[in-house]
Amino acid sequence: MSSPFDPASSLSRLRGTFARSTALFAPSALALVLMPALVAPAVAQTSPPPAMDLPPVTVRAATPTAAAAGPGADTGNFSPADIALISGSEAQAATLWTSDSGSLLNRIPGGAAWGAGGVSSLPAVNGMAADRVQVAVNGMLFGIACPNQMNPPFSFVNPAMIANVKVYTATAPVSVGGDYTGARVNVTVAPPKFTEGEQLTVSGSVSGFYRSNNNSYGVDATVTVANADTSVTYTGGWATASDYVAGDGTTIKSTMYETQNHALTISKKVGEQLFTVGIGGQFIPYEGYPNQYMDLVENKSLNAFGRYLGEFDWGQLEGNVFANQIRHTMGFIAPDKIGDMPMDTRATDAGYALKGTMAMSSRDILRIGNELYYNNLDDWWPPVAGSMMMGPDTFQSINNGQKLRVGIYGEWERRIDDRWTAVIGVRNDVVWMNTGDVEGYNAMMYGADAALFNAQSHARTDFNVDASAILRYEANAASTYEFGLARKTRSPNFYERYAWSTNAMAMDMIGWFGDGNGYVGNLNLEPEAAHTASFTATWRDPVRNAWELRVSPYYSYVVNYIDADRCLLAGCLASKPNNPYVTNDFVFLQFANHDAWLYGVNIDGKMELWNDLAWGQGVFRGNLNFVQGQRTDGVNLYHMMPLNGVIAVDHKLGNWTNSLELQMVAAKVLVSQVRNELETSAYALLNFRTSYEWQQFRFDFGVENILDTNYNLPLGGANLVNYQVASMMGTSAAWGFPVAGMGRSFNTRVTYTF
């Protein structure tokens, strides 16, 4: 497992292997043609003033330029050329317009977010999403704790708490982690910060924000007490919001929320060793979901971790142990949704990771590691008094679900010569899963399905083998080329394997896709294995870092991709006889394996436009992202983000920082036929942000969606609330209406730093 803290920021003898850069690319062929001409004047400038820090710009790892010099030398983690970094300053600046940490991935090459609750969007990278993207927070893993994934890992931290985010794609080294096929995301919260001398110093910040569109407001705070060998940091925040309004003036119901998160870490340096312990918690009293039949009505969690990092003559040793518990309840939030149907889950996660890094020679580094991860889940639905359908017994959806994963890996990094570097690794993860017998609300409506499920063995064992190989060529100081090959595997989650009821209401409660469809599990699912090839070419200004361009094409062939087919089980057909054929309604689906492929390209870069004392510094940045995915039987994969890009100009002059940004998204027309996925139209959003720093204060102001454009979210799913029709249970959703995005919003933020 990759370290949640960058060793270079914690131990003085560990040299960092990362360098900052910013991102730009005008999404058109014309921009590629004009790039050399535009770059030349910038390179030709003489005696420019020092470079200045710019506001929210995606930061990436630069290519290391030196090899380890032998035992005791730099043995830090290898950084692939296509890694994406989100800095703490970028994450904190994003609180001007969002409280959803998952939405930060919208700003990285190939990144996107599936729309969900206001603080709980699901991550997507290069077309792979949800738990195909493994998110670790300070090394802690969070298993699925809700049939609709209303509490994904990113929801346990607000953006202002984040110190940095590292996103590794599907060809990352095996030491990064296992049991994912899309990407691994490492989120660092409250890392240790030490000061000179023995005297304790106190530093931190307090900020408050307001967003006009959904009347959202909240506070964030960070306080650090530290000296040369001790660091204690608290960080946390609270936010609330009402339903937001679309560009045409329509209130998008069930988009309100309230959330608070807290984290406390204590770190101690002892010689060349660093010890860290941390504790954190979350409380969400309510969060609406426009694309789900249910809402979140309470979510509580408590987590703790311990971390060790030591440097020795032979190399480095890293250790991490963690545990967390989640208590979650779904229901209805009035007045947007009415009814009574409590659904409860309790989840426990625990695990450890050990990693040793050894410099075997002046050119060879060996990494070996062992990981263990355990996840336990109970999902039960209490009976509803007076209801014939939801009573008299408790509905057991997942009864004592257990998942245990044990992994080992070995990885060899070889500096072949001054220009060539190779990294090769293999890992094995054994996954054991099981669950107990179940029962429904009553035997008449649920007894047949429960009996069929209980009669089968639930225990499953997966032997998953991963491998990766990366070859890097540093042609010169201005250009780097990197080729990666990898096999990554992911075992099914609890609901993909163990959701058992074909009752219409029960199936509608399963599914994190926001598509309005109902789902049932499949005990015969096999793990999916993604075979991915990627290539990354980077060109840069080696002298002044005045421009940079990165192009990253990729291709994945996924064996046993876990998708879904129309449900042909007797219970599904009895609930909706036309289910296998309907094309203009919600449908019932069963999880199923299919071979599939995905391919795409991400292009990003930046270019300095001017840099002088009178006008400050101006930088043009941009990115262009393209992905397509399809099963081998011709069915399109669900929620593939259409062609999209960003172009922006960032400007800094003295204490002023400004940014004008244009987001562009093409029409989504390649949709999943089996899910009756909705198409969306193309749109463009214009955003402006500005900030001013005065003494210890920073004042931020921004306008999102300046033109009040009315548009639908490509990954927002189906609106199940605004467009309802009467039914015997109160309300049911009408098919054919996507979730609209937020209209114009005036946002402010004030920060005091001490």
The best one-word shape is: globular
- For the secondary structure, the number of strands is 35
Alpha-beta content class: mainly beta
Which percent range describes the beta-strand content?
Answer: over 45%
Low-confidence stretches: 1-73
> Fraction of residues in helices?
under 10%
Rounded to the nearest angstrom, the radius of gyration is 25 Å
Distance between the termini: 35 Å
Number of helices in the DSSP assignment: 6
Mean pLDDT: 90
Biggest sheet: strands, sense, closure?
A: 22 strands, antiparallel, barrel
Q: What do you see in this structure?
A:
- This protein is mainly beta.
- It has a 22-stranded antiparallel beta barrel. Strands 1-7-8-5-6 form a five-stranded mixed sheet. A three-stranded antiparallel sheet has the order 2-3-4, with no helix packed on it.
- The radius of gyration is 25 Å and the shape is globular.
- It starts with 28 loop residues before the first helix and ends with a strand.
- Mean pLDDT is 90; it is low at 1-73.
What labels would you give this structure?
754 residues; mainly beta; 22-stranded antiparallel beta barrel; 5-stranded mixed β-sheet; 6 helices; globular; disordered N terminus
In short:
The chain is mainly beta and 754 residues long. It is built from six helices and 35 strands.
